[in-house]
Amino acid sequence: MTKRIIALLTCIMLILLAVTACGKSATKEPNQQPNASSSQSGSAQKQIKVVYIPISTGIPYFNPIIEGFKKASQELGFEFTMTAPDQADPTSQIPYIKAQIQRGVDVIAISPNSSDALISVLKEARDKGIKIITVNDDIKGNEKYREASIIGTNYDELARQMTIKFAEFLKYKGKFAILSSTTDAPFQNNSIKITKEVLQDPKYKDMQLVEIAYGNDEPQKSLTEAEALLQKYPDLAGILSPTSVGIVAAAQAVENAGVQNKVVAYGNGTPNQLKTFIKKGVIPGAMLWDTYRIGYVAGYFAYNLVKGEAKGEEGFKFKVPKYGDVEVGKFGTIYAGPPLVFDKSNVDQYDF
Question: In the record, which residues are listed under signal peptide (predicted)?
Answer without folding.
Answer: 1-21
